[in-house]
Design goal:
Largest sheet of chain A: none
Number of domains of chain A: 1
Structural class of chain A: mainly alpha
Radius of gyration of chain B: 33 Å
CATH topology of the domain at 35-45 and 66-326 in chain B: Alkaline Phosphatase, subunit A
CATH superfamily of the domain at 35-45 and 66-326 in chain B: Alkaline Phosphatase, subunit A
CATH class of the domain at 35-45 and 66-326 in chain B: Alpha Beta
Shape of chain A: globular
Strand content of chain A: under 5%
Oligomer: heterodimer
Number of helices of chain A: 9
Helix content of chain A: over 70%
Strand content of chain B: 5-15%
Low-confidence stretches of chain B: 34-39, 850-860, 936-943
Radius of gyration of chain A: 19 Å
Mean pLDDT of chain A: 87
Largest sheet of chain B: 8 strands, mixed
Distance between the termini of chain A: 11 Å
Largest interface: A-B, 22 and 28 residues
Helix content of chain B: 55-70%
Low-confidence stretches of chain A: none
Chain lengths: ~240, ~950
Amino acid sequence: MVLSRFDQQKTKHQLFHVSLSLATILICMAYMQYRRNWEHLGSFWDSLIVPIVFIGELLKVLLAHFYGRIEDGVLTAKQRQKKAAYFTPREILGGLTLQFLCTLLYAFICIILGAPVLGNYEQTFVLSLLMTLLTVSPTVFLLGGGGALQVCFCEKPEFVTKCEDTALNLFKYNALGGILGAWAGSVVAPLDWGRDWQVYPIPNVIGALLGSALGNIYACTHVLYATVRMYMSKKRG
Amino acid sequence: MEEHKSRLGYTFFMLTFFLCGSIIFLIGFYPASYSFSAEKENSIPSDRPKVLHGLKLEPPPPSYDSFILLVIDALREDFPNATTMPVAYERACEKLSLHVDIPTVTMPRLKSITTGTLSNFIDIALNVGHTEQLDDSLLHRLKKQNRVATFAGDHTWIQLFPTEFTRHRANNDSFYVNDFYDGDKRVTESLNLELKRTDWTLMVLHYLGLDHIGHVESHASPKIIPKLNEMDEVVKRIVEYKNLTNYLLMLTGDHGMADGGGHGGNTPQETAVPLYLYSKNCSQSKSSSKLHRYNQIDLTPTLSILLSVEIPTMSIGCLIPEMLQSLSKEQQLYAYFYNAHHLMNRARVRLGHDQVHNTDYYGWYQEATQKHKQVILEEIESSSLVNYETAKLNYIRVAEKISVLLSESLIKFDYGFIALGLGLTTTASLHLLLSVLFLDITDQLQLNNVRALQLLISIGASLVFLVIGHLMNIIMTSSMLYSVLLIVPLSIAFYLGLDIVRALVKISLPPSSFPRLYSPRRLKLSLPLPKILFLCYAIRTFTLGSSSFIEYEYRTWYYLGNTLILLTALRTLRRRITKANVELDGRHLSKIASACLWQHRRIFVVLLLLILMRYVYRLHVIKSTLMIFSLFILWARLRKYSQSAQSVATAVGFAIIYAFRGLNGQVQFINISEFLASRLVVPTVLAFWICFALVLVLGYREALPQTNPPPHWTRSFVLQQLMQTNLVCSLMVSALLYNVRNIVLLPTLLITLNETYKLCDAFATSSSSHKFSVRLVHVYKIMMTIFVARMFYFYQGNSNSLSTIDLTPGYIGQSSYNPVIVGLFVTIHTYGAEIHSFLYLIIHTLRTSDLRGVGIMQMKPAYSTAADSLVVPLYATLIVLPVAFYLCLMVGFRYHLFIYSVFSPKVLYDCYTVLVFYIVFLMTSLYLKLFKNYKPEILHNLS
């Protein structure tokens, strides 16, 4: 019974996915360590955090596609239709618009929560770009703009394949962790330590990265727990 | 029905207990007098020492014939300079800087200057109003020698020293802050009179104009420089007066002025004041670049030496070497010896003989006296110069060391009172919390009915406790009456504590263990506790433990409040979109989403407004337009609540407010001469009060029971009418009192609350259980109200520093200082946002019974009945809990470095918040109680 529920492919996918996320964040941390001075974290052209996270998310989507190939044969008509429409200009445009709107929304939220209105535009932009990359972009890359919207607002869309569902679940942890981390990062802002990394967006950027790392670790423990339980029951059996 | 039982009475008692507890706590934390230690201080010899190791010493005679202490209220360090006060700046013999201790308000500072001791923090509360007379000070000592001291200026001096001055001419009304010039003119007049006489030794002048300008118009007011010029004239007049030959003029400020004009806090601008010295034929200052810094309390012993009087017993200051230069070397050495000797005696009394004798400073003192003796014996010789310097340096370092030690040991807590106060506040708030959380089963938990047996037990317990305490000398009271009075709070705390313990045991015990005694099923929470709300609430409570978070508390509130509104908005939006999308199955999703967004556009407008409110202080340029605009919006909002006659009166009232501001020159208005304008101000305010009375009377006449009421006149309808009238009136008063640029906050507050409530309504239909889902909406709304109210409280410019209390609104339409009216107006102004939010919440709760289409109307239990059974108690609990927590924190932080600068003002603010809430709660519950039986009557009439 337990054995049948356990899906080796899925677990492999999950573990790869989580390790990709953690690796991305590790690379970010290493990069920050290498640069020493964190003041550049808020600038768009001078910081590599956004490109690193972008590549990491792309790799995760590619991973999902790689695992998705295996179940290509058992797709329903709707799923097939969706797959076919993936690279149409309409979908690409929709996806880009959605991400752009999300960036705007995040920038708005940043300003509501206390980012300066007159100034620090670049920093706000970088932060909201990072948040978009951590939360919305992976889903958009995976399913396209319309698909992402439906995942967000519908109960359970029919076109999502099993493998995509796995990835989406993991994206959720990533996104939630990122949002909470960035939100909680502001805690250092009022403290009177006088450190140069207390300047807005640095704690929020780092918080977002650490938060998504924690989210992934949480997801990872879930997967590992399920695996261990499976092995125990197998042994007992 | 059980859940409709009114809990107002219960809440009233709990709040009363809480307030009593916090007052007891404050009494214990800031003992108002040092009387219990003063008995021991009497053992300090008050005479000047005449003997040193068997050698006779001669105290120096007065070094000047006349001393003038010129105190300019709120003269901060950067005010006097070469341009603002040229004469004072150029001709000063010495320019020093004094460090002022907190609280930086006048009365404690005057105490420090005259007695040389640090003042108690609670003096700040006594600064306005009551002042105790001092027993010992420089002036007492002068009077003992029958020397003449005269005074002109701030009335506070006369309250402190009613009989010590030979002649005095105080301002009648030192607290009337709109007086910039008249009081100062009178001081200068009396200066001119006194200069002609020659009999006085000490003349004290205290000018208040600068402080008043700061309070009303901030530190950057254009009136400041002319005022400083006027003060410069005063200095010039004294310095150039021919008949004064041998004088010492000291120009100083009692405290500084914060950026913004207030004072009372701990910023460098408030705690640094200049001390400029002038005398004839002094060596002009060498214009040293670095100012020497001394403490304000150092002024007392130095002046005592110069005046040739005894140092006041309580003094713990050091000497200021620059001021002693007129003395001969021997005299100087005597001065240092005397002060060190005095401090040594104080240290012996305070810290104990044996302890003092084992310290290093005692060794220094011994060495200094030996060298001193040698100096006297050897007369002036080359070798004695070394001895002289060693003795002097040793004396100075002894004095400095002991001064620091003594000022640290001045902190005294009355732990008995603190424990009692904490016990009462903690038990009252926990009791309130438990009874709200287990709303439906309070009878089962037996929380809200008094049981005689338990009461007897707790009275007995507290009696035993008191007797044991007395026997073991832990509790000391001055009279029997006090110990009897102590029984009351003690037994209340015991009683509540027993209640809580029993309830907790019942809740935590497994259901089946004692089926006979306790309820057979497990007790469940009666309130839904949404995670996010309580996370934010917990963050808000626990960040009180950090001094930075208290200093920047507004940031916490803006962040959490906006987060809550945003999250609620996003959740509501998502829920709406999902719901609209169910049957469409993903097609046209973007269209639906944008339609829903458009439907909820208002909440985004509110969020934008909230961003704008952060920058409200920058909207200086368009303040006239802004004021008209916001008054209009406010009027349009209020029109919903009032009949046509009432709204006309409101409109006239608002027009008068604008005219009033125009007459004061704060907004653009028709040009009339200044004289006419100042004459018109009082009639204008009077006209406003007539409008106010009109609105009140019209509203009440409309709502009060009539002989033949229409059928829809239920209890909640009448109540709602009355409360609306109250809200309108309170908003009108606030509009009058609020600063011109802050008026925009009033309509914004109403709009924000309205829109957030709409968002919260969306939670009603989601949950499974009806009762629970109605309560969920209530909890959301209450929490949102608290957060929004606090956000607006801080938008207004309030903070946790005492220097941001705006005193100007207290004097609107007033021509003299009336403590009651000033207190009332300042309170309404400061806590306006909180008062209005609470009233609005109650009105909204009562109103929702006639809101259709939200889905709440059909619900059972009816929504509006929760006003007195749930909304008020929960609101009270949420207000009281953080305060109780903070009081506990205060005890933990009592030796913290920032205890008086950061934590103490906050505790005063917190307790005052509870008090204000208590008063508003009392008024509201009075209405709710009065109309309790309204409904059955009507039903009876109808049938």
